[in-house]
Request: fold
Amino acid sequence: MSNWERLVWNQQGVLLQGLGVTVEVCLIAFAVAITGGLTLCLIRTYFPPLRFAAIVLIEFFRATPIFVQLVWIAYVWPELFGWPNSFFTAGWLALGLQSSGYLAETFRAGIEGVARGHREAGYSVGMSPLLVFQRIVMPQAVLTVSPSIVNQFTVIVKSSTLISVITVQDLMFQAMKLVNVWYEPIEILTVTAGIYIVMVFLVSTAGKMLADLLRRRYGLAAA
Amino acid sequence: MDVMPAIRVVDLRKNFGALEVLKGVSFDVHTGSVVSMIGASGSGKSTLLRCINFLETPSSGDIFIDGEPMGFRSDASGQRRLRPLSEVNLMRRELGMVFQQFNLWPHMTVLGNVIEAPIRVRGMSRKQAVALGEECLARVHLSEKAREYPARLSGGQQQRVAIARALAIQPKAMLFDEPTSSLDPELTDEVLSVMRELAGDGTTMIVVTHEMAFAREVSDRVLFLHNGLIEEEGPPEQVLGAPKSERCRQFLSKYLH
Ligand SMILES: Nc1ncnc2c1ncn2[C@@H]1O[C@H](COP(=O)(O)OP(=O)(O)O)[C@@H](O)[C@H]1O
Ligand SMILES: [Mg+2]
Reply:
């Protein structure tokens, strides 16, 4: 029986379970990042009374190392706010919030990149600012920043390996557990690295294909 | 009694900070007539057009579209007040604007660009809007491009779509801001000929242009703008043929070789 069979193949149930948790955490974190990023960006751009608060949050999420944020949300927030009540929640929350800071700036660049003339053309046919935003600004902004959004998703996948530190049982956690049982890290960690590479590759390839498909549909050059 | 002009501009002034761009401009555009506006770059032509449909808010002065004050309105005590944006929006659709840079929305098809306002602003059904949109595209001779995206069209075609988009809001008048200035010379004719047809159909138009032959041919009146003031105005034969003002003469000498 080879080491590969003993350490990896026979442990596939545990690894797959961890992979499931990783995928779940990343998807939730991505949704949080998109929603949070868009909200922060909209407040920053269009709602002056809370602009300063939004900027502070954005900069805070971006400037804090993910490890510090993770531990801080997992151990300090429950004391301060009584929430999150599980490490799983703390995991996706920290990952999502950090990326929301980056995505807020990405969205802002996308919105500011829409030519003023395109907005004015909307106003000139009688569209309201809300309509112009929904129908003209947002679709174009999403089109231009879609590669950055995909990239941020890969950052989430990679950063997610840290949530094992707060005992969330993701792929990394299960891999390390196996290593600590057998004291034979070579095969387990190599395979684990391989799985992460494949995941990141799939996300970025699918994302790029989708973005290019959209752009080609509109007759624009590939990003 | 005087007929109400389609567009009346009264003592319009606009400054950007300390820079006074329009210094009191007044003129009428009668229904069905074409007014061309000429003048050197920086003389305030674009600002004037943009003030008329409130893409810029005038510093003072009045604009009437078919007698209805645009942008401002007097309240009970006679005080001039800015109209709420919702009313300005409503009135903007009485004016079709065509920009130098076309400004088509790249993520919508040609037909999508044209029917956007009829559906979202006028509240037409999709079916009605498509019928109207196809009619407008036929007027600019681009029916066969309805399903294309703007990026696949030539500049001249894009500008004609922009004209169709403006026509689709069924405006009382059309405003053209140098519609051929960003086109290659061989593409200007197709746009000018569409505009010629519109003028022939009795469309009320203000055209900012450097195409003097075109202005002479289609205009009922020509305005020469200089430093934010109308320096000379009159029928095209006079303003373009025998200008009284020295500045207008100098300006024209650059265009009539
Ligand atoms: N939004 C703006 N802010 C400041 N200055 C402006 C703005 N728009 C136009 N101007 C200035 O107003 C003057 C007239 O511009 P414009 O109306 O575009 O002239 P034209 O269309 O005749 O070339 C120029 O000096 C220009 O720099
Ligand atoms: Mg101009």
In short: Chain B has a mean pLDDT of 94. The CA atoms of residues 102 and 202 of chain B lie 23 Å apart. Residues B 45-46, 177-178 surround magnesium ion (ligand 2) (CB under 6 Å).
